[in-house]
């Protein structure tokens, strides 16, 4: 019996230069159509960016293979051009934003815990 691999949930944090926040937001409304296509082609889905206090940016996406998605975008000339233009908006970043962001550790997921709870209940005598 083969079990389906769970998609990876990836969350990351970046710090936007507060002096450039308005321009950063404007650049994302909308993102270049060709960059949107590259993100989708990489296998990333359910991708969102959230703005927090002090111009902290939190990103989230799901993918079946994050290493493959990273490799795809690393080799993409479109992504390289987008990331080169976006790099100036970030503080303390060394490298391309899509590859140098600080990953966050997931500590809770409702779906996973409900699924585990239901499984445990069905196997309890």
UniProtKB/TrEMBL annotation:
<protein>
    <submittedName>
        <fullName>L-rhamnose mutarotase</fullName>
        <ecNumber>5.1.3.32</ecNumber>
    </submittedName>
</protein>
<dbReference type="InterPro" id="IPR008000">
    <property type="entry name" value="Rham/fucose_mutarotase"/>
</dbReference>
<dbReference type="Pfam" id="PF05336">
    <property type="entry name" value="rhaM"/>
</dbReference>
<dbReference type="GO" id="GO:0019301">
    <property type="term" value="P:rhamnose catabolic process"/>
</dbReference>
<dbReference type="GO" id="GO:0062192">
    <property type="term" value="F:L-rhamnose mutarotase activity"/>
</dbReference>
<dbReference type="InterPro" id="IPR011008">
    <property type="entry name" value="Dimeric_a/b-barrel"/>
</dbReference>
<keyword id="KW-0413">Isomerase</keyword>
